[in-house]
Amino acid sequence: FPVTIHGKVAVITGATHGLGMAMAAGLGSAGATLIINGNSSQEKLDNAVNEYRSKGFRAFGYRFNVTDEQQVAAAVEQIEQDHGPIDILINNAGRSIRRAVHESVDRFHDFERTMQLNYFGAVRLVLNILPQMMHRKDGHIINISSIGVLANATRFSAYVASKAALDAFSRCLSAEAHTHKIAITSVYMPLVRTPMIAPTKIYKYVPTLSPEQAADLIAYAIVKRPKKIATNLGRLASITYAIAPDVNNILMSIGFNLFPSSNAAIVTGK
Question: Which pLDDT score, from 0 to 100, does residue 16 have?
Fold first, then answer.
């Protein structure tokens, strides 16, 4: 990670486990002040903060639900009072649902709750943090998107749609924030070996990154401040769809038919 972030205040949502924890560890090793968000339990948040501190990192936990506007506003205000302006925001908190659309006809709530967390949760944080970044003419917002947005992943319509919405929001904001010297980066994250993908057994047979490799993408984002970051596989998927959408559709359809939904999704609706 770049030493240029030494002393900077970095907020990472969903940082009590998996990918978020790897990102935070990288930032902490570079000397950033870690503001760790989690919403599962205070105990889990405290355990994560203690683990960061045991490594010598400057870490603080703030438990709030990114889907609750009042909680987000109060948390951002408290963080800024405690630590000063937020320099880096990483919108990482998210949920994934693997279920075909025709299996979701009576589960509209799947789409609602996925959008609430993956899209509206990230937007709430941006709206609360952006004014002080504009005032200071400095800041970096990193939104964790998905390779599924580039590949149009089947059975992930709820998840991909929420990440695509965040992607479009990021592109618009990037142009608006440019004159204020605020960088907006979308990271089209490939599959990462975390508990979130564990229930989908076919992922054992497809390329994945370790959490540490994924954290390296964030390091690159912080150093270069690009508008977007994608892996070679993601770029290939995007190019294929752009120049031959029908071929892309056929390939994705083959995968859809080869790997059906799990029995849990079909029978129990979990």
Answer: 92
C-alpha distances in angstroms, 99 versus 92, 223, 263? 22, 37, 11
The pair phi, psi for residue 62, each rounded to 5°, is: -135, 115
Retrieve residue 83's tokens: 């630590």
What's the whole-model pTM score? 0.88
* DSSP 8-state class, residue 97: -
Find all residues with CB under 8 Å of 220, minimum gap 6, and list them: 229
**Two tokens, residue 148:** 């599924």
Say which residues have a Cβ less than 8 Å from residue 156's Cβ, sequence separation at least 6: 96, 97, 98, 148
Please report which residue ranges of the chain form alpha helices under DSSP H. Answer: 18-29, 42-54, 69-83, 108-115, 122-136, 147-151, 157-177, 211-224, 232-243, 245-258, 263
Residue type at 7 in one-letter notation? G
Q: Are 107 and 269 in contact (CB under 8 A)?
A: yes
For the stretch 88-103, pLDDT in tens is 999 999 988 889 999 9
| pLDDT (mean) for 171-178 | 97
Catalytic residues: 159
What pLDDT, in 10s, does the model give residues 19-28? 889 899 999 9
Burial class (CB in 10 A: 0-12, 13-18, 19+), 106: exposed
Q: How does pLDDT run across 201-224, given as a tens digit for each residue? A: 555 556 677 777 888 889 899 989
Q: Which DSSP symbol is given to 172? A: H
Instruction: State the Cα–Cα distance between residues 15 and 24, nearest whole angstrom.
Output: 7
